[in-house]
Amino acid sequence: MMKLVVLSPFTVFGTSIQLANPTSFSSWDCVTLSLFMYFIIMAEFDSSFDTLTGLYNRDAFNKAAKQIAEKKSFSVIVLDINNFKSINDTYGHDCGDTVIKMVADIIRKSFGKKYTSYRYGGDEFYIISEETDQEKIEGQLRIMTNNLEDMRRKGNAIPTVSYGYSILREGDKLDFFKTLREADAQMYHLKKAQKGGADNKI
Questions:
Q1: Is 158 within 8 Å of 137 (Cβ atoms)?
Q2: Are residues 28 and 75 in the same domain?
Q3: Of the candidates 168, 196, 167, 160, which has an alpha carbon nearest to the alpha carbon of residue 79?
Q4: Where are the beta strands (DSSP E) in 93-175?
Q5: Model-level pTM?
Q6: Is residue 198 part of a domain?
Q7: What digits encode the pLDDT tens for the residues 26-38?
Q8: Is there a domain that residue 35 lies in?
Q9: Are 6 and 99 in a shared domain?
């Protein structure tokens, strides 16, 4: 949005010059330049989304990770669909894609504006947030859990999801990937806590 806003002065400036000097054709030049830059921005915007789920993709996540140094505090959530490989093996990849889309829709529905969701790859999702209150983060995760359960009660064969999160607060040494690894390790700890590979309900 900021990039698009920056483009508007080009058109306004060019039109103003032509109004002051009708023999000048600067407005057309500025409009052409603005349109050209607009299409570049939109191409970059489109390439930031995962085609299956509509969430931001891995490239967008990597860009966000590089820019995270601008934030004084943040949290990272890692989400992973339980027993997803068996779903693909038993019912096929089309069913697997449907499950991924359903889980992605629940993630989008469950987290507020402070949370930016990404499909990092396969059945793995990351969320970056400016929220650092542990109770509020866990509250959002409970909302997601309840939404998943509601889908099951309606007859949708949707699996459970394991999660982990980590918080970097203001004053802590900034290390985004260390924070991400902590969240990932917590998620796998919860997943491995299942007995006999049973689903880990969050």
A1: no
A2: no
A3: 160
A4: 115-121, 124-129, 161-168
A5: 0.75
A6: no
A7: 555 565 655 555 5
A8: yes
A9: no
Could you report the per-residue pLDDT of 124-153, keeping only the tens digit for each? Answer: 999 999 999 999 999 999 999 999 999 999
Distances (CA, A) of 57 to 45, 47, 124, 153, 190: 11, 8, 11, 30, 25
* Residue-range definition of the domain harbouring residue 38: 2-46
Same domain assignment for residues 40 and 70? no
Q: Which two tokens stand for residue 56?
A: 């931001």
Phi-psi map region of 193: left, alpha, beta (phi>0 left; psi -120 to 50 alpha): alpha
Asked if residue 199 belongs to a domain, the reply is no
Of all residues in the chain, what percent carry a pLDDT higher than 90? 52
> Based on the domain organization, do 38 and 99 belong to the same domain?
no
For the chain, the C-alpha Rg in angstroms (whole number) is 22
